[in-house]
Amino acid sequence: MKQFDAHEATRPVSHLAIVDSSAAMSPFEKAAEYGHAKVTKHIAQSFGLSVFAGAFIALAFVFYITVTTGAAPGSWGLVRFSGGIAFSLGLILVVVLGGELFTSTVLSAIAWAQKRVTTKQLLGCWTRVYLGNLCGAMLILLLVMMSKMYDLNGSAWGLNALHVAQHKIHHDWSQAFALGTLCNLLVCLGVWMTFSCKDALGKSILLILPVAMFVSSGFEHSIANLFMVPLGITIEHFIGSEYFMALGVVPQAFADLTISNFIVHNLIPVTLGNIVGGAVFVGLGYFWINDRNPSSNHVTQLHISPIEQGQARQPDDTQVLQQPQHLSASAQFQPSTITSTHSHSSHKDLTMKTKIDKLIVSELMDTNPGTLNVDNTIYQALDLLTAQSIRSAPVVDKNNQLLGFVSEQDLLRSLWSEEFSANLPTTIKEVMQTKMLTVAPTEKVAQLLEFMVVDKKKLFPVTDSGMYISGGYQSYEERLREASAAVPSVYPVVENGRLCGVIRRESLMKMFAKLYHPKHDGNAHPVEQSVA
Fold this sequence. Notes:
By secondary structure, the chain is mainly alpha-helical. About 55% of the residues lie in helices and about 5% in strands. It is built from 23 helices and 6 strands. Residues about 1-25, about 295-315, about 320-345 and about 525-530 have low confidence and may be disordered.
């Protein structure tokens, strides 16, 4: 037996089996969640990730300068395109590694439009991300100068950086604003496309062309400019006149590379343009379109529904499923039919399938389940579960509002702890689980059944782009045997926060026992055996 380790006892472990809702969410819903998560993220975490994102974009511009240095003047378009491909590394690093980049963070305007965050929260998020991006860019700038990269290719690398930086401060305000708008329109559309897939390779490929287009076309990215223009200013001010003399360039040719010119003629209008292009054109534009047709947002989703804040829990009978009551017919689970050589057998099988499809949770649930209240002790709960031969029970208040859920595992874990602690929780309030999934009374039984018994990722081991990710070939039957779902067997039924009943896996077993002929030889399908 494994010995008890005190350090392991204090280590936070999450056993919550998260139900993946992303596959059922539309890109707009994913974008809304994406934006909301950025605004509500812990300040320290958000700032740290934004420093990384600023560094990623700066590194991408280093790549751009390297690729475009020394190119033949007659291949202008191809050189800029290759530079754009190189620069796409920055956004790929941000998306795949989870950085906080200002130009994509402005999509959080969707959450603001949905009134999920306040204006103060939104602006606070944008400010800290912008400052974090600046810090990351300055860090890479320091390292580039220390490494003397400006001396590469006979100092042509540094001259290229100077020309790029100087070009950026010579736009008038309207031009800089328009170039910033076009840039972030493409950046946010690229990020938006990544919401349609899960695998890193697919996301990376989707980002390349939008980034390559805005870079090769000369559109302006405020965070990239936070590195590129200061790099030119630093080279111009600190390298010395002998550097320019070796290149045959007059130092005064870059005298206009100053911080004031950068801020006034580039950074301010470009940043404002980035906000308009990403937050207004893409974020609020898609919000307006989706807001015109609210019914389109009712899609099948499985998600964790916290009744109140609590600890993540182990996948046992206290986890429950929540789905919206309005589901599109195309999203409903369709049980597979059994192929039969007998036409009347096929008809019977179709009849069974139809009956199952029509069943809803309220028809099978136990409307009078044993319940507990927060003042009950764990010993009273133990008596209830053993007396009624059930594995778990909901916790409700006097108005039958669902407050939590207690399973036999919760009780046994508490009792086991008596061996190690004298200060044990004794009331249900102290041991009940409050982060739960629930099921609506109008939900289809077929969908609940699918969730309870099938792990779709094991049954169909492919990425969103269709790439097979399993270790070797397995037939459908072999995968099906291994595709068991690690989910609970009992589910509270909740409507408007009130407990309506409880549905258990045993209820589904009884349903099938009634619908299918119980007597068969163990080889044929029950329907075929009953007809034969």
